[in-house]
Q: What sequence folds into this?
């Protein structure tokens, strides 16, 4: 379990201004969800309506509704004594999330392979080339990687598979940011995406599914390594 301070104070930034202008539950939800995913709100951090409403400059009603939505997504957990905390990060949960993700994304890659046309293959290849060009920049690698996977999902046109992935997306993204940090400055991420694109281009659905599952499994292993390092006590 990752230790964290009891309360995390969001920085005064542009997203706060957006929340104050919109002042709706959706805006509060979007902001809190992003901060949980990127770690600004740390795992196990305690969240309370009065503190959050004061920090965000909104009433308690949209905060309450946003926390309800986050709880339904299992990104926050209710405490026996009342209130909620950011859901913990744990290696056991990570393995389960990535197992589900690998199976679902493997199926999408298989379906995409069966539907791919030359223009689709070229589009995936361009995204891999772009990822290669920015491989030293974590945020850009994540953004382009998400676009690559989104292209495959669109091409696969498997509504049920995509919906199931959407339901675990927040958890995937929390752990995926850990694996990305382990890969910064390497070509591993680029090489794996290129293997997926090449397998789809080959027209072999088995190869496409296998390449995608291996890519997701390697990402999970990297995320587990990073999380394990966070959980390990400092030497001495």
A:
């Amino acid at each position: 379990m990752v230790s964290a301070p009891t309360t995390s104070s969001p920085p005064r930034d542009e997203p706060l201004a957006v929340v104050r202008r919109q002042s709706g539950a959706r805006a509060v939800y979007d902001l809190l969800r992003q901060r949980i995913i990127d770690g600004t709100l740390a795992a196990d951090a305690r969240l309370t309506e009065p503190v959050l409403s004061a920090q965000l400059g909104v009433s308690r009603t949209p905060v309450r509704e946003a926390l309800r939505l986050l709880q339904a997504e299992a990104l926050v957990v209710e405490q026996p004594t009342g209130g909620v905390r950011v859901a913990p990060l744990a290696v056991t949960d990570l393995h389960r999330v990535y197992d589900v993700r690998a199976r679902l994304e493997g199926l999408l890659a298989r379906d995409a392979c069966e539907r791919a046309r030359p223009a689709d293959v070229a589009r995936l290849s361009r995204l891999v080339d772009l990822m290669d060009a920015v491989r030293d920049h974590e945020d850009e690698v994540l953004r382009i990687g998400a676009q690559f996977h989104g292209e495959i999902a669109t091409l696969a046109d498997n509504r049920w598979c995509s919906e199931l992935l959407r339901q675990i997306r927040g958890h995937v993204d929390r752990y995926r940011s850990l694996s990305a940090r382990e890969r910064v400055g390497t070509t591993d991420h680029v090489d794996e995406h290129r293997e997926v694109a090449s397998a789809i281009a080959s027209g072999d659905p088995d190869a496409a599914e296998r390449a995608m599952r291996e890519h997701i499994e390697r990402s999970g292993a990297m995320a587990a390594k990073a999380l394990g390092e966070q959980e390990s006590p400092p030497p001495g």
Remarks:
- The mean pLDDT is 86.
- The first helix runs from residue 14 to 22.
- The chain has ten helices and three strands.
- The two ends are 20 Å apart (CA to CA).
